Amino acid sequence: MVFYGYNSSSWHRSYAFIFTIQRRIFKSSYILDFKTSLILQKLILQSNSARLLSIRDVTQISSAKKVSGVDDKISLSFSERFQLNEYVKKNLNNWFPSALKKVLIINKEGNAQVCKIPTISDRVWLELVRKSIEPAHEATFHPRNFGFRVSRSLYEIQNSFFLNLSRASYGWQKRFLKLHLSDDFLSFDTNVVLNKIIVPRSIKLGILRSLKNGLYLSFSSLTFEIIPFIVLLSNIFFSGLESIHPCVKVGSEIIFFLKPNDDESKLIKNLEKFFSNIGITIKGDFYLSSGSDGFEILVWYFKLSSYNNFICLPALKDYRKFLLRFKRIINNSNYGSEVKATKIFPLVKEWKFYHKFSFLKGSRFSLFYLKKKCLKTFSKETKHDFYSSKKLMDKCFTKISSSEIQSFERKTFLSPYFGHLIFCFGKSSTKFIIYFQGKLNYFCIHCGMGFYV
């Protein structure tokens, strides 16, 4: 049997094909045309390109590709990928998941976490289902839901807090109620998930079998790297929480904005009622603070200054970790000055890029003393003088150009849910027929910009 077309096929064409269908699913769900979205979801599920891309994402691109399940398979050969493609195609609408394997994994913070890992075939099926479900629910999610969503930028969280805490919106009068949910939910109502999810009935049956098999909801970043479908399912499960009170949801942490007349006890009762309806009990992990005290989220610390201005600072724990990593490199006698410069440069660049919209004018977060330490360490070597060591120091602390920021933003926002949402009203439409100089009218429903063909 000759296998042709896996590596020779154009992945860009496959991505573009799925991109266009996902865009149509998003538009149909946005106008509540769920019948059309279900038809388009079946196109993705039955697509050969979508299956091959799911296999490629799980076995080749994913950072957790070396984590094995019960079958103890880490990688697949060239022929095994096509065999898996035929297996998923045959059992797509009648999927029976295999047993899960409990693995102890150490996350980035150094804490041990128990994860239930499915087999490669189950992860491929879940990735294929995610490609069809995600655009349908991205149209229904609340705009202030920032929980591991591809279409939302990290800096939109800062902007949303700025809009709520600025002087124009009377931020000094508001209080904050922070709710921290647990990262993993082992017990929940599966009927709520199946009623909320937009997917064909045969796929719902496979999801129900996976949930009964031991698949659980989670908001942890480690689970998102291994099985992104679980985090998407968690966002679907908790959808509707933002309609109770104005808030910003970031993963498992939710910040509610309370005006002077708002009663936090009534809000807590409404939240407890919402969680009881979906079959979850919360232990009262609430934290109430004022604008001057502030709150910490995503290694950022948001507060109001003495002049009632909104300030975003780096979290103290994150800054101490950054200093510790810097000192381990600069004080290591096994490295030369050039090796130290190559290791310090990405560390400082990542710090500057992440906190590019933060308030770093204070002496605490200034990099002046780190530059001085670098210059002093580099000049101790006999092969370097003041000018050569200063060149190395400038290499470590280069400024981020605007072109680098723009290229990063283009990569970040490359999704079916970004840009103009264009609809056509013409001969094909039974509701409206709008012509301009004898041509069909295409326009964006957000900004109203017209596109005439």
Topology record:
Elements: H1 11-30, H2 34-45, H3 48-61, H4 78-90, E1 101-106, E2 112-117, H5 120-138, H6 155-165, E3 175-180, E4 184-185, H7 190-196, H8 201-213, E5 217-218, H9 221-226, H10 228-237, E6 247-250, E7 253-258, H11 264-277, E8 286-290, E9 295-297, E10 300-304, E11 310-314, H12 316-330, H13 337-354, H14 368-378, H15 386-396, H16 402-412, E12 422-425, E13 435-436, E14 439-444, E15 450-452
Antiparallel strand pairs: 1-2, 3-7, 3-8, 4-5, 6-7, 9-10, 10-11, 12-14, 13-14, 14-15
Broad shape: globular
Instruction: Please count the beta strands (DSSP E, at least 2 residues each).
Output: 15
Helix content: 40-55%
- Measured by DSSP, the beta-strand proportion falls in 5-15%
Mean pLDDT: 81
Which structural class best describes the helix and strand composition? alpha+beta
